[in-house]
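Limitations

Structures in this collection are predictions, not experimental determinations, and the ligand pose is part of the prediction. Treat each record accordingly. The example that follows, with adenosine-5'-diphosphate as the small molecule, is included so readers can see exactly what is and is not provided: the inputs are given verbatim, and the output is the predicted complex.
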Amino acid sequence: MTALAHVPTSTGQPAGPPPPPRHDRHRLLPYLLLLPGAAWLLLFFAVPLFQLAAASLYDPTGSLSTGYALTWAFGNYPDVLQAYWPQFARSFGYAGIALLLALLMGYPLAYAIAQKAGRWKNLLLVCVVAPMFTSFLVRTLAWKTILSDNGWLVGLLRDVHLLGPDGRLLATPVAVVLGLTYNFLPFLVLPLYASLERLDYRLLEAASDLYASPVQIFRKVTLPLSMPGLIAGTLLFFIPATGDYINAELLGTPNEYMIGNVIDSAFLVRLDYPQGAALSFLLMAAILAVVFGYLRRAGTEEVL
Amino acid sequence: MTGMSAKTTGRAAPAGDLRLVNLTKRFGIFTAVDDLSLTIPQGSFFALLGASGCGKTTTLRMIAGLEQPTSGQVLLGDRDIARLRPYKRPVNTVFQSYALFPHLNIFENVAFGLRRRGIRSVDDEVLRMLALVQLDDFGHRRPAQLSGGQQQRVALARALINQPQVLLLDEPLGALDLKLRRQMQIELKRIQTEVGITFVHVTHDQEEAMTMADTVAVMNAGRIEQLGAPADMYEYPATAFVANFLGQSNLLAAEAAGGSGSEVPVTAHGARFSVPAGRARADRGEVYLGVRPEKLHLADSADQVPAGHQHVTGVVSDASYVGVSTQYLVRTGWGSELSAFAANSGLGGRLPVGAAVVAHWDPRHAFLLPRAPGQDDRTAGLLDEPVGASS
Ligand SMILES: Nc1ncnc2c1ncn2[C@@H]1O[C@H](COP(=O)(O)OP(=O)(O)O)[C@@H](O)[C@H]1O
Ligand SMILES: [Mg+2]
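Predicted complex:
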């Protein structure tokens, strides 16, 4: 460096006072880049979150017309939990089963697209994403048609006696779980695909050369190397699926309602803000607990 | 060679020889490996030498089971393993890309094969292997934390630990710099002598093949051109391809009239020469008269040529000093440029460009090869670096 400092101006630098030190600007740059995003988060996430936290502690006897008072009513939490724990349990149960189904379908799908599809790769990826071009609502309504009592699917299942003569799919837990599985599948497949796409097939050959049977290759090489995508995908699937209410609303009955439906009605129908806010916070806390528990178990150093 | 005989006495039965029988692999209409047959004795160090794209990797992959032959057999002893799944074959590979498992540390990489076969106590064996490749303290590291040469040794240890009947090495030294490559060549040879496993070593580096292998097979366009001990092949190549792939050669287009005696007379560019009958791959019609550059000596005038030597006259057109030797190009009267290496032994001065010289050789060092009709001289001076330039 000292040698460079003695090089005369032949490098094209004009003689005269040196330019202002760039160190300060360099140190500020990351923060400047963060600014728009941070401001956005502050305005539309942090502030509403605080408002919601406050609302969850309002006096539950108030109403929208008479106004709410912040009375630090922590009792709201045990109250809503007691009233709505079945919906809580159902949310996690449905989302969990849907996740399993999605994994059974999504992993082979992502693997096939990433490693076997060759020149069909991009087309298949578009197929995975294509449903997202239509609205979530429309897609779910389409499932309502597919699963309807006089649709071909129910007819077929009745013919092969998988369903009784009066058996139905619509308005059952099966319909809700299928809807969840379908609607969130791309969120699982895309990160998995990204991981599996980077998987070097030569490692699979090496494993095969080193006495690993196909099952062992999957367990010892493919699966560990796709772990980052698998974790990201399961989270991107599970979190929105747990909080979802559209599928239960359109494909189920109040007997299939999930916690999202309860929150929806608390805010928009019953106008019970303290209850809605407390439920929202509980849901958030529960999901965070599940996610952290999951990451602790599954998360290797590559992920965290 | 002494190591070889020590191993041969120790080996159980010739049942472990690896034999490829009429092995063919086609990709669509392209034939990558063409009716290849060869026998690799158990415990030998065998080199498969050939230019990039000639089918070396494909051949190895068929032995390993990673590629299905279109036809033919892969026999290990008298068992045909050509249809066995790769994980059922007593064969391991050191891959050109190493293919170390990035999510496992070095210890687990090396232990991989043992664990897959259900062996529980692997510690002793893994540590012994790491010691063999001189990576004792690296067990806890990840592959990405190792240099290329170290990764190469891990790949070797990971394959060797399984004590396969055959170890396949696909240009394992290709990615290393020259010095490390020389060092690893000696290492590999030492390890092979120590473990006594059959090594099939693929390379496009003729020097590597010759220094390491007991037997070298030169491959060209999916076929074996010639197979033999390195020195035999170098001294008496079978084809023009081998003559210029394994080292360099001056090949003069000549016509042979056949001979009944111990000498085969030939005519090249109007001059008459002869070659001992035992060094003629062809003795009639179109032939190449071949002389290696280091066997071609330069003299100032014809009266300095030793008795029994044959000669052509020419002019030094280029001289390049490469330390141990000086490489001269001699332009002959008919316009070809012969290549001659003169050792810088301190005897005799260096010849200036433009000097008239006599290039002479002992006919016992010359050889005759078949030549396709119409082919002109092929001289080393006109060739690019024949090997080592690509992978
Ligand atoms: N899977 C494949 N599909 C089509 N052609 C291939 C395939 N593998 C190898 N080839 C072709 O076969 C020839 C031999 O390849 P390879 O055995 O890898 O050569 P080498 O290892 O001697 O460089 C090459 O021309 C290559 O393009
Ligand atoms: Mg190759």
